[in-house]
Amino acid sequence: MNDPNQPDPTQASPPVPQSAPTHQGANADDPRSWPRLIRSERFAIGLGVAVIVLVTLPRLPPGICYGDSGDLQLAARTLGIMHPPGYTGLVSIGFLTTLMPGVNPAYMISLACLVSGVVALWLCMMLQVRLGVNAWIASAIVLALTATYRVWSNLIAPEVYAPSLMFLVSAVYLLVKYGRLKRRRDLYLATLLFGMAMANRPTVVWTLPFFVAAWWMISIRLGSSLRASLRTLPVCVLLVSLPGLYALGYLWVRDSPDTPFNYIELKRLEFEELPDARDGTEAKLQRLWWQATAREFKVYMGNSWDGVRNRLLWMQREYFLYRPVLMGIVLLFCLFGVVLAFRRCQVSGVLLVGLVIGNTVFICTYIIYGHAADLLPILFSASVLAGVATSVIIPYRSIGSRRTVAVAALIVAAVVTICDAPHRALRSPVDGTGFLAALDMQTLPKDSMICSVWQYSTVLWYAQFTETDRDDILIVNTKPADWRKWIEKNPQRPAFVATKLASLRGYDQTPYRNIFCVKRRP
To answer: Angle formed by the axes of helices 161-181 and 88-97, to 10°?
Structure first.
C-alpha cells in the first residue's frame, strides 16, 4: 500500500528551480556573469580580429627597420641590449621567434609585435563583453580604434608599446576574472603579467596603486580575513618581482664588449662617460644601474606647471579634441562609461581609471613627445568605457531591431576598415630594407667607417652583425655635429656619412650608392 505522504512515481517530478542567467551588465561581480560566449558572440569577435589581421599583415615591413624598431629587431636577433631600460623580456621572447627556420628574423619580430597588438585589441573586445557590451558593438568599436594613428602605427611597425600593452591589459582582464571566479591562479597569472609589463616599461609603476586597490577590494568582497589575504601577498610580490630580477640578471650577463649589439657599450664609446665592463664588479654595477634606471633620459623627467598644462593640451590635440564642445561631449560620454563600469564591476572601474590616471601622470612628468608618451593604455580604457556607455543603447544579447543595428554596425566598421586601410599607410614607414639593399655593405672598402644618426645606425648594425662578415667596418652612431671629430680621429679609415652634411667644410662628399664618401680636399 502506497504511503499517501510519498510522491506518486507515475507523476512527473516538479522542475528544479534553476538560477536565471545573469546579465553581464547587472551584478557583474557574480561568478555566474562569466559564462562562455555564445556562437554569435564568438563569430562577432572573430570577425573583428580577422579584419584587423587582414589589413595589417600585408603591411608589415619584410625585414629590418629604422630607429627604435630596428633596435628591437637587432637586439632580439643577437640577444643583445636595447636602449634603456633594455626591454630584456621582449628581447628574450623575440629571440625565440627568430629561430623560425626559413623566415627573415627581423620579419618575425614584426610579426610577433603585430600578434601582441592583436591580442591586446581582442582583450579590449572581451573586456567590453564581460561588462555588458554587445559583442558586435565591441568589435565595431575596436575596429574604429585601429583607425587612430597611435594604434595603427604600432600594429604595422615592430615597437615595444604593443607587447607592453598586451602584458598590462592581460593583467587587467585576469584580475577582473579573478574577482568573478575566485580562482587564485588568475590572480597569480595577472600578477606575473603585470610584473612583465613593469619590467619592460617601468612607467607602468604609476598604475600599481590601482592594481593593489583592486586586489584588496576583491579580498574584502570575498570575505577573506586580513590574515588570509596577506597569505597570498608574498606569492604576488615574488611573481611581480621575477621579471625584474630576470631583467637585471640578463643585463649583468649580456653586458659585455663581446655581445654583438650592446647599447651600453655603444654609449661608452660615443660619450666616454661610462666605465668599461672589463674594469670589475663596480664598473658592471654602474653600467647596470645606468641602463635599468634609464639615466640617459633623466633630462626629460620633471616638469613645471606650465609644462604640465602644455602636455595636457598636447594630449588634447593627439586625441583630435580640438573643439571644446566636442571635448566636453567625449568626456561626458566616457564619464558615463566610468559610472556604469563601477556599477557593474567595481574592480574593472578601478583598473580602467587607473590606466588613464597613471599614464596621464607619466605623460605630464615626462617632457618628450612621440610614441614614448604611452597613449595606448589610455586609448584602451577609453574604448572600453565608450563601449560600456553604448551598452545602454544596445544591451548585451539584445533582441530584435537592436541586434540588427549591432550586426550592421560591425559590418559597416569592417567594410570601412578594409577600404580605408590602404590610405593609412601602404607599408610601415620604418621599413629599412630598401636602404640596406641599395647600400650593399659588402662592397665597402676594407676598414671603412660610417658616421650615422640613430635612424640609420640600427639598419647598418643589423647588416653588419647578422647578414655580412664585415666586422672590419666601424659604424659610429652619434649626432652630426660630432662626425668631423670621428673622421679626423680615424684618418686611416675610408670615411662615409649616412647623409650629406653642410657643416663638413674642407671635405668633399661624393655619393656612394645611397651614402656619401668623405675625403679631405687637397
So the answer is: 100
pLDDT one-digit tens code per residue, 250-293? 999 999 988 999 999 988 887 778 899 888 899 999 999 999 88
User: 372: closest CA among 146, 84, 74, 148?
Assistant: 84
pLDDT at 233: 87
- Cell matching residue 429: 614607414
Place of cell 588568475: 186
Residues 139 and 238 grouped into a single domain: yes
Residue positions counted in the chain: 522
pTM (2 d.p.): 0.89
pLDDT per position as a tens digit, 138-157:
999 999 999 988 899 999 99
Q: How confident is the model at residue 13 (pLDDT cuts 50, 70, 90)?
A: very low
Q: Is 420 in the same domain as 507? A: no
Residue range(s) defining the domain that contains residue 504: 433-520
Question: What are the DSSP calls for 222-241, one per residue?
Answer: TT--HHHHHHHHHHHHHHHH
> How many Cβ atoms are within 10 Å of 31's Cβ, its own excluded?
13
Instruction: Provide the 3-class DSSP secondary structure of residue 454.
Output: helix
Q: How many domains does the chain have?
A: 2
Q: How far is CA 50 from CA 42, 121, 343, 408, 428, in A?
A: 12, 12, 32, 17, 20
Contact status, residue 122 vs residue 363, Cβ threshold 8 Å = no
Q: Is the pLDDT of residue 39 over 50?
A: yes
Tell me the CA end-to-end span of the chain in Å, nearest whole number: 127
> Are β-strands 495-497 and 449-452 bridged in parallel, bridged antiparallel, or unpaired?
parallel
DSSP 8-state class, residue 87: -
Q: Residue 452's domain is classified under what CATH number? A: 3.40.190
- Biggest alpha carbon distance in the chain? 127
Check whether residue 442 and residue 469 sit in a common domain.
yes
pLDDT tens per residue, range 75-124: 999 999 999 999 999 999 999 999 999 999 999 999 999 999 999 999 99
